[in-house]
Amino acid sequence: MSRLPAWLENYRLLPRPVLLFAAGQFLISLITSAQFLLLNLFLKDKGLDDQEIAALSAQRFVATFFLALPAGLWLRGKPLRKPLLIGSILFPLTALASLETVRLGMMDTASWCFLAMGFSGLLLNVANLPMALRLAPPKQSSEALSLLFATWAAASICGGVLSSVLQGIGHLDLGGLHLVFDEYTTLLILTLAAFASPLFYARLPDPVPEQTSTKHWLHIHREDWPVLARALVPTVCIATGAGLSIQFLNLFFSHVHQLSSTAYSAYGSVSNVLVLIAGLIVPEVKRRLGWRGAILGVQSIAVFLLVAMGLTELWKAASWALPFAIGCFIIRQPLMSMAGPSTSELTMSYVGERNRELISACSGAIWSGAWWLAARTFELLRAHHLPYWQVFVTTGILYLIGTFSYLLLIRKVEQRESGESDPAPDPEPRQA
To answer: Does residue 424 surpass a pLDDT of 80?
Structure first.
């Protein structure tokens, strides 16, 4: 019997709790990936224009923006299984309520449901990365984080394939029952599947970090402020850029290239197969190319492809424009996603164990705030008929600034690893 390659063998050796955690995360990701692929198109089908879609989508980020920092401070050093369990119950419930209220035309209620969905996702987002690092031994942290990121790609593949199959069927008559398979059907099926996620989270152990702060939970140590600030600069730039364009890629292909939601889902599935493969080889890439290759190199190529994809709007009538845009779309996402596990591991290593929940919460708040602000900005820009390609170029500039902001963190972590210095916060707080 042939042996697995060494990089795959490392995943087989991960502790069982990490695999349970990844299974639960996969089910939750069925909702987020399906919404990423199809929610905007579902809202468009219900008669909402670009501005209304952006306004409703922005509601998901309001609760996270205001509550993420308190949540991160509260969860520092505490058991995380219960917050994860509560979040895994509330998130599918609020996602289902959001779908149904939009379908029934109850838009005021839908706005509140989207707000509640943002709060439910907050509990999961703050606890995810710290919990993964608690469950995995330090030497397997790269594989644990890469597996966690790969669950999103696997869920996206399932969502894309299901959407393509169902919308390929279109309509089905069973006796006197007439079934319509559209974006709503796919979103509904994947949301219902996520209700099984609490079964996996309930079986997790509940470790706590070895080093915890003795200060009040609201206290942030003075020496932590510059560390946190430096760690969050790249997130601010990349989150703002992503919020301007990534969440509206399906609208770009629909409006500019008249690509159907079925075709978009199919191409998204192809891209996510590559995302899954690329995500799993991240530890090997990092070992061979170091932090610079795994982060700066792959993200820079991804930024170039994003800008090139947006510029196809200028030549949208050309026969090559759509195939070229699709090619950029398929390749860009694996490269950008490939850097995710590495940037997360780098940031968590830089801030130290004491601040993992806090940095996770701050990152969540920044992503939510940036995406909310970017969604409002996108709403304004589209209301004034600003072309998509200019939005994509702006995203590319912000991405490049954020990407090369990681260079400072890389230098600090490499210095610590080589024993030259220790820029991380002390394990025990100093007395102010």
So the answer is: no
